[in-house]
């Protein structure tokens, strides 16, 4: 079974973050490591700048809570979604 996860990519950190978000959209990954490998491949030379703050993966519930509680600023991020296999 797969879980829908929200991906946020900070605009300021990646020149081509929108393209990356669009390429990953609606893709299925069998593991987190498979997702990270594909993400780094999409980010190409910018992968070395990826960290837990400029690229985030959220469960749908956590993302909705963060938005409703105004804990996340959506002004400066590209948003996408993926499907990650539950462990």
List keywords for this structure.
alpha+beta; 4 strands; 3 helices; four-stranded mixed beta sheet; 87 residues
Strand content: 25-35%
Number of strands: 4
Number of helices: 3
Give Rg in angstroms: 12 Å
Count up the domains.
Answer: 1
Along the chain, the helix and strand elements come as: EHEHEHE
What shape does the CA trace take? Answer: globular
List the quaternary state of the chains: single chain
| Largest sheet: spatial strand order | 2-4-1-3
Helix content: 25-40%
Low-confidence stretches: none
Largest sheet: 4 strands, mixed
**Mean of pLDDT:** 95
Supply the helix-strand structural class. alpha+beta
Distance between the termini: 9 Å
What features would you describe in this structure?
This protein has about 90 residues and is of the alpha+beta class. It has one domain. The chain contains three helices and four strands, in the order βαβαβαβ. The protein has a four-stranded mixed sheet with strand order 2-4-1-3.
Briefly say what this structure is.
The chain is of the alpha+beta class and 87 residues long. It has helices at 17-24, 32-43, 60-68; strands at 2-10, 28-29, 55-59, 77-85.
Blueprint of the fold:
Elements: E1 2-10, H1 17-24, E2 28-29, H2 32-43, E3 55-59, H3 60-68, E4 77-85
Parallel strand pairs: 2-4
Antiparallel strand pairs: 1-3, 1-4
């Amino acid at each position: 079974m797969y879980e829908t996860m929200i991906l946020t990519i900070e605009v300021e950190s990646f020149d081509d973050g929108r393209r990356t978000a669009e390429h990953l959209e609606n893709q299925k990954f069998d593991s987190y490591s498979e997702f990270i490998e594909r993400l780094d491949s999409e980010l190409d030379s910018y992968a070395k700048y990826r960290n837990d703050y400029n690229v985030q993966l959220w469960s749908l519930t956590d993302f909705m809570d963060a938005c409703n509680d105004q804990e996340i600023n959506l002004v400066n991020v590209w948003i996408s979604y993926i499907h990650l296999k539950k462990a």
